Amino acid sequence: MRTPFTTPGSTELAMDVLTAGQYLGLLVFAGLVFFQVAVLREPRLPRRLQGLLRGAALVAVLSSILLVPASALRVVGAEAWSVVSPRSWLPAVLPAPGAAAVLVTAAVSVVCLVLTRRVGHVGQGISLLCATLAVTAPVLVGHTQSVEPQWAMILADVGHLLAAAFWAGGLAGLALYLPAIGPRPGHDADPLHAVGVTVRFSTFALVSTLLLAVSGTVMAVLIVETPQNLVGTGYGRALLVKLGVIAVVIALAAWNRHNLLRRIVPRPTVSMRWRALHRVLVVEASLLVAAVVITGILTNSSPGHSH
């Protein structure tokens, strides 16, 4: 929610960058947990993905913590570099960003302790619960607190975050996992295993896409309110761009499933298919990063601000 102060450009930029970092870190982090439990179904996260999990965790935690002073600087209308003078912003610290930072830090720490070890169903269940709590922590701040009916907005926001996390972490996981099991000198590839993993991802991705579409539509209706605001405000136009980016991601995923995968099974020795699959996944992941950046900007902008 905007304050009566005019927010300095440096503070506004810091808020956008940190919010985008928080979303990106949380989505990749939680998505990797979902990918491990629902798609890979292995007792331990592969070493290559453990590094990405820890990196995403670090980005998510640091961004969430830094958003606490950044939000306070925004409240008092101070420049970003005023963070070195705590007396100027400490009295303006808001409880919601602080609670979100604590929740993210605690949940992420538990997952990192559990999922990088060999665990059974109980450990995976704990990881899923903590990952869900972490990725939905941003619901504590942003437009969910100012849009009515609040319960509908919160449910839609939670569904949107969970679906987006599956896409973000799943694509990142596939982009790293498939090349590791693909054909290379001195190593016989197992294309059927790769196809099985990708098909399982695509199946869950279909469900998450439906959830993403429904929750996104509900949020758009509640926030934008009128069709005129969709094209007449900066927020509405940014929302349209985000929806367009996500539509491209979904189209690429559909092409990936229906054109590439069915060619891998009958021709398992053609490494070009593996490379093509990897390229598509990297492009999808890049587009999702763009969608996350736009989400960060949307979170910190006013739905009714026209420019």
Automatic annotation (TrEMBL):
Pfam families: CopD (PF05425). Keywords: Cell membrane, Membrane, Transmembrane, Transmembrane helix. The chain crosses the membrane at residues 20-40, 52-72, 92-115, 122-141, 161-180, 201-223, 235-255, 276-298. It is found in: Cell membrane. Residues 198-298 form the Copper resistance protein D domain. InterPro entries: CopC/D, Cu-R_CopD_dom. It comes from the Bacteria. It is a multi-pass membrane protein. This is Copper resistance D family protein.
